[in-house]
Amino acid sequence: MQAMNSPRKYASTPPRRVAFLGLGVMGHPMAGHLARAGHATTVYNRTTAKAVAWVTEHGSQTASTPRLAAAGADVVFACVGNDDDLRAVTLGADGAFAGMRPGAIFVDHTTASAEVARELYATARAAGLHFIDAPVSGGQAGAVNGALTVMCGGDSEPFQAIQPVALAFSRAVTRLGESGSGQLAKMVNQVCIAGMVQGLAEALAFGQRAGLDMPLVLEVIGKGAAQSWQMDNRGKTMLAGQFDFGFAVDWMRKDLGLVLDEARRNGAQLPVTALVDQFYAELQAQGGQRWDTSSLIRRLKA
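Now predict its structure.
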């Protein structure tokens, strides 16, 4: 899948020296947009072959440690797996913080806990650095097409500095408050998605049981109040039983685990979210770890 950005998207942002840590399904295209925007981009990945492949495609250079990648960078971006992965690329003798110059900004696009965001914010501040938590929404397609939505937490001044740079791979980059606010907003996003996908799964399974022409039903109700991104982009594939793409069940379970942990801390009641999390656990047990999250409908067709 090729990126659909035009050169015009990048035109107004002066080139910066940046690093990108983590070249998975999201990080690889995100770093590519930075390079295409004219930013001098150094990349690091735990699996060296992925970094070498990225450099072969985009030019620039790779580094053998996060510290070396971050050396001299104005902004260091990261998109890794979880809290522990994030600590691994930031802290310690080979971590990015050890290589960053004073005043440089670390921008974390990992979906992680608000707790680790606040922890690393405090560590960065003590070292004369800045830290922005900046999880994204839009999935792999959004990353490839430079159309992600970025939810940020942290101080205003470094946010303003990184916003035009991050727009290379985004359609919106918004500061929502102090450190941790970006991660909390991503949790709100995932709560909405979990409930919406379960509702859509139930509706489609109900309609099929009733003997309706469900592709036609989707076309009709998609023009009314029931319309949603999930209906537009997943309705037909759910009816067809196609789930070998998109945002994996394993990833959603990780995200919902963060949500439920935070709810236990703040006292929020999330009965539907907790139930959908259990449904995803059932799909994992059936071998659906890498199925798209819309595979919830499989539970209702047994």
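The first helix runs from residue 27 to 36.
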